[in-house]
From TrEMBL, chain A:
Molecular function via GO: ATP binding; ATP hydrolysis activity
Gene3D superfamilies: P-loop containing nucleotide triphosphate hydrolases
Sequence ranges assigned to domain ABC transporter in this UniProt record: 5-228
Natural source organism: Micromonospora avicenniae
PROSITE patterns: ABC_TRANSPORTER_1, ABC_TRANSPORTER_2
Protein name stated in the entry: ABC-2 type transport system ATP-binding protein
Alphabetic keyword roster: ATP-binding, Nucleotide-binding
A Pfam family it matches: ABC_tran
Top-level taxonomic group: Bacteria
TrEMBL record, chain B:
One Pfam match: ABC2_membrane
Ranges that cross the membrane: 24-43, 58-80, 101-126, 138-161, 168-186, 228-246
Family listed: Belongs to the ABC-2 integral membrane protein family.
NCBIfam families for the chain: Mtu_efflux
Name listed for the protein in its UniProt record: Transport permease protein
Lineage, uppermost ranks: Bacteria, Bacillati, Actinomycetota, Actinomycetes, Micromonosporales
Subcellular location: Cell membrane
The entry's keywords: Antibiotic resistance, Cell membrane, Membrane, Transmembrane, Transmembrane helix, Transport
Length: 253, 251
């Protein structure tokens, strides 16, 4: 089956600054792909390009076999922005039901999405009165409610308690098992080990694109944090050998 | 455009308004208080011989003006929030069409403006004995059209504001000149030629003329219908311009 996301030489400029320097990679269907990198590395810009809301300076972005941003993709792709984008003056349930209705889903689907993010007890509460973590879960519910084939989540687990975080990752893997593809960004390295595939970007360049095990093996350490550090050092030293050894990511830098 | 998505979007906007009880109360009470003020301001002023009383003349224009100014403000802020909270960007990644959102706002706040005009008109006619030759339903209809015009202008202007402070500043820019030149203070045909020319391109001038037609004639006149056509045309133009400011892709 065709890949869920294919990037070819993706270049994005913001103002006079180049944010993404020709990224190429592919994400197969039915996996949880982690997009890892420090703040300001271009994670959000890459996700926006995949969703089709980012003006692209060069290269191509193909999503579910179609150019990113195509009209029919709007019902097949779900997007969670980094800052929670829900209506503060509506309740959690009203938000979920509105986004459900936009995707032609029922009220029961909306209530299920609210339950899936652990907000059933707060469903009748105005979003404006929720804690930051709850608010971002309300936003997550609205991204999941349309049952999209590709879900792009920009730092969905920031500020969540560890138990909830584990639950959410469990839910992501359930979705992946059912054939849904997830692209999840994080700057917390301990979440990297939960992903089926990893994309590590730094300063707008792809440093690694492989499974967590392969990344560990390539760096020769068992700790992912340490593995990333070595890969970054290797790429900074301009060593094509180390980057090339981690698989397909080497060509991007 | 999709009727189902338009309906749920309109419902969502009205639901947001309903949760904000204080705004609803202000929407309904403030015009009534201002009308009361105008009533007592002119209570002891003699009516010009054979003419309409000053209260009748001013109150009639005010009934159309309240929904215009208030819905402009409410819409500018609501749309600015959609832009700054990221909900607009998110909406544009869903099957929602731009027209669903724009018409959703037009219908929701147009309804709110109609309710506001109905309450204010009830007070003006029943308590303060407002006299118009034409029917009050025409006054309310013109007020509702004014509300929709204001929504369209607000949707467009919100694109040029980055913050709520800036959005509020658009009120004097957009609303004040239209109020000054609409013919309430100085009849339009007594203004200097260049002022008349400016007045001619401002949509509120036509809405006010339509109200004055209702004030003076028992039956709807051709001038009134022509004026309302201009108001609707200006609304459509503002909506088209507003749609052009909604970009699915940005830098």
């Amino acid at each position: 089956m065709e890949d869920a996301i294919v990037l070819r030489d993706l270049v994005v400029d913001r103002g006079r600054r180049r944010v993404l320097h020709g990224i190429s990679c592919a994400v197969p269907r039915g996996v949880v792909a982690g997009l890892l990198g420090p703040s300001g590395s271009g994670k959000t810009t890459l996700m926006r390009a995949v969703v089709g809301v980012q003006t692209v300076g060069g290269g191509t972005v193909t999503v579910l076999g179609r150019p990113a941003g195509s009209t029919d993709l709007r019902r097949r792709v779900g997007y969670l922005t980094q800052a929670p984008s829900v209506y503060a003056d509506l309740t959690v349930r009203e938000n979920a039901r509105y986004f459900a209705a936009l995707h032609g889903r029922s009220r029961a689907d909306a209530d299920r999405a609210v339950a899936d993010v652990g907000l059933s007890a707060a469903a009748g509460q105005l979003v404006g009165t929720l804690s930051g973590g709850q608010r971002s879960r309300a936003s997550l519910a609205c991204a999941l409610v349309g049952e999209p084939e590709l879900i792009v989540l920009d730092e969905p687990t920031v500020g969540q308690d560890p138990v909830l975080r584990a639950d959410l990752w469990g839910r992501f893997h359930e979705l992946a098992a059912s054939g849904v593809t997830l692209l999840v960004s994080s700057h917390v390295m301990d979440e990297a080990s939960r992903c089926d595939r990893l994309l590590l970007i730094r300063e707008g360049r792809l440093i690694a694109d492989d499974t967590p095990d392969a990344v560990r093996a390539a760096a020769g350490v068992s700790d992912l944090d340490e593995a990333f550090l070595r890969l970054i050092r290797a790429s900074e030293a301009g060593s094509a050998v180390a980057a090339g050894a981690v698989g397909t990511g080497g060509e991007a830098s | 455009m999709n009727p189902r998505i338009l309906a749920v979007t309109t419902g969502r906007i009205l639901r947001q308004l309903r949760h904000d009880r204080r705004t609803v109360a202000l929407l309904l009470v403030v015009p009534a208080l201002l009308l009361t003020l105008v009533y007592y301001m002119y209570a002891d002023q003699p009516a010009p011989p054979g003419g309409v009383s000053t209260f009748d003349r001013i109150a009639l224009v005010m009934l159309g003006f309240f929904p215009f100014v208030i819905m402009f403000l409410v819409t500018s802020i609501a749309m600015l929030r959609e832009r700054t909270n990221g909900t607009l960007e998110r909406l544009l990644t869903t099957p929602l069409a731009k027209a669903d959102l724009l018409f959703g706002y037009g219908i929701a706040f147009g309804l709110a403006g109609a309710v506001q005009a109905t309450v204010a008109s009830a007070l003006a006619y029943w308590v303060f004995d407002l006299n118009t030759a034409g029917g009050s339903e025409l006054v309310i209809m013109i007020a509702a059209l004014n509300a929709v015009l204001a929504v369209a202008l607000g949707l467009f202007c919100s694109a040029f504001a980055r913050t709520e402070f800036q959005a509020v500043q658009f009120m004097p820019v957009v609303v004040a000149p239209q109020l000054l030149l609409c013919g309430l203070f100085v009849p339009r045909d007594e203004m200097a030629g260049w002022l008349q020319a400016v007045s001619d391109v401002l949509p509120l001038s036509y809405a006010v003329e339509a109200l004055q037609e209702v004030g003076a004639h028992a039956e709807p006149t051709g001038t009134m219908w022509r004026d309302l056509t201009v108001v609707v045309g200006a609304t459509v133009l503002a909506l088209v311009l507003a749609a052009a400011t909604l970009r699915r892709r940005s830098g």
